[in-house]
Amino acid sequence: MLLEAIPDAKVFKAADFIKALNLLEKHIFELLVMDINLPHGDKVGMVEAVRMKQPNILILVCSSYEEHLYALPFLKAGANGYISKTASSDEFKSAVEHVLNGKIYASPAVLNNMFEILFNAKGNDNSPLDTLSAKEIEIAKLLTKGFSTKQIGKHINLSASSVSTYKSKIFEKLGVNNIIELTTYLELNS
Amino acid sequence: MLLEAIPDAKVFKAADFIKALNLLEKHIFELLVMDINLPHGDKVGMVEAVRMKQPNILILVCSSYEEHLYALPFLKAGANGYISKTASSDEFKSAVEHVLNGKIYASPAVLNNMFEILFNAKGNDNSPLDTLSAKEIEIAKLLTKGFSTKQIGKHINLSASSVSTYKSKIFEKLGVNNIIELTTYLELNS
DNA sequence: TGGTGTTGTAGTAATAATTCGACTTTAACC
DNA sequence: GGTTAAAGTCGAATTATTACTACAACACCA
Questions:
Q1: Distance linking the first and last C-alpha atoms of chain B
Q2: pTM of the model as a whole
Q3: How far is A132 from chain B (nearest CA, A)?
Q4: Which of chain B's residues have a Cβ under 8 Å away from the Cβ of A40?
Q5: How does pLDDT run across B131-181, given as a tens digit for each residue?
Q6: Where do the CATH 1.10.10.10 domains begin and end in chain A?
Q7: Separation between Cα atoms, residue B42 and residue A45, nearest integer Å
Q8: Phi/psi of residue A115, each to 5°?
Q9: N or C, fewer C-beta in 10 Å, chain B?
C-alpha cells in the first residue's frame, strides 16, 4: 500500500518466489521488496537468484527474523537493504528512499556490526563460525539435528554437563538464544 | 554415477535449485533426481515449481529427512518417488526403475501410510495438522519460534506444566521427536 | 619463563521441563 | 439425558538442562 501510494509507481506482487522469478523474467524492475518468509524459495539464495536475473535491481529484504542475527548474510549476498517486518510505515518509507537513492539501508546496529566485521577482518576470519572450535562445531551440528544434551553426551562420550557447557558457549559466541535461532543461523551462514 | 552408468543416458547436474530451473528451461528431461537439502530453493515448493515447467517430468526426491515424516508431503506435491540418501545402490536403482516405469516409489511403510490416509479420509481431514486443536496449533507455532515452555506459559497464561503437556501431545500427534523435527514438519505441511 | 587466553572437561546447586495422574469442561452421539 | 471421547488444566514427583565454578592442558607471546 505504501508503495502504491507513490505517484507513477507500478507495483507488481508475487505470492511466492517462483512467481516472483517469472515476473522478473518478463519485466525490468527498479526495486524489489522481498519477504524472506515466503513459502517458496530459500533465504539468502533468493537474493543471489534475483541478482542473477537482474543485476541492477534494488533489493530490500523484509523479514521478521531478528535483525542483529540475520541482516548481515543478506546484505553480504547483495541486498541493498534489510528492514524488520515490525518496522513502522515511516521507517519503511525511509528504507525505500535510502535504497532508491543508492544507499544501503539497515538499522544502525546492523551497519555498525557490518563495519566492525569488515574492518576487523585481519585477513581472513570474519565469520563467527570460524571462532567456534572443532568440537563446538560438532556439537552445534548435532544440536541442529534435534539431539538432546544427554543424547549428544552419550554419543560423543561426554558428560551431559560438558555438552551443556559447549552449548552455552556456542549460543554466546553466535549470539543466539535457542535451537531454532541456531538452526536458522547455521542455515544462513552455511 | 549410477545414472551415468546407464547406456545412452544423458545426465546433467545442477548445484542448486536456480541452476536446475535454468536447465529445465533449456532441455526436456525424462527424469529429475532431486536433493531436497540443496542450498537454494525450498522443499515441497521445488516439486511444484518443477512440475510447472515440465508437467511430464518424472521426479525422484532424494533426502536425508526421515522418511516416515517427510515423504508424504513430497508425494502429495507430485513427486514420483522418495528415497532416502542412506539407501543402497540397489535400492536407488530400483527406485529409478520404478519411477521410469510410471510407478510411484517409496518405502513400504510410507506407501502404507499413504494408503491409510487416502482411505481414512472420511471426507476431509487427512492432514495430521487438522487433528491438532486450536490451542495445540498456537503452542506449536510458538514452539517453532524458539520460545521455551515457561515463556509460552507466561505468554498465554498457562502453567509451564500445561504447556509441556500440550507439547507432548503435539509431538505425539505429529509423530515428531524434537523441536527441529516439529519445525521441519510444519514447514513442509505449511 | 612466566603470564594470559582458549579449549576441554565436569561437579554441584539451582532452574526448567516432562511425566503422570487427576480433575473439569466441552462436544458429540445414540 | 446419559455415555463416551477429546480437550484443557494443573500439581507433585522425576528427570534434564543450565549456571557457575574450577581446573588441567596447551598455545602464544613478550
A1: 34
A2: 0.71
A3: 22
A4: 41-42, 45-46, 48-49
A5: 788 899 999 999 998 999 999 999 999 999 999 999 999 999 888 899 998
A6: 128-188
A7: 10
A8: -55, -50
A9: N
Q: How many Å apart are CA B131 and CA B189, to the nearest integer? A: 13
Phi, psi of B81 (to 5 degrees): -165, 160
Q: Is B144 helix (H, G, I), strand (E, B) or coil?
A: helix
Cell of B143: 514452539
Give the CA dihedral B32, B37, B42, B45, nearest 10 degrees: 40
Q: How far is the CA of B131 from the C1' of D14 (A)?
A: 30
B3: CB partners within 8 A, 6+ apart: B9, B11, B33, B96
Spell out which chain A residues touch chain B, with contact meaning CB-CB distance below 8 angstroms.
16-18, 21, 39-42, 45-46, 48-49, 52, 144-148, 177-181, 183, 190
* Amino acid sitting at position B110: V
Query: Could you identify the residue written with the cell 523435527?
Result: B181
Q: What is the pLDDT of residues B89-135, one digit of tens each?
A: 888 899 999 999 988 888 776 776 666 555 544 333 345 555 788 89
Q: Supply the CATH classification number for the domain B128-188.
A: 1.10.10.10
What are the backbone angles phi and psi of residue B10, rounded to the nearest 5°? -105, 115
Q: What fold is seen in the domain A17-120? A: Rossmann fold (3.40.50)
Assign B183 to helix, strand or coil: helix
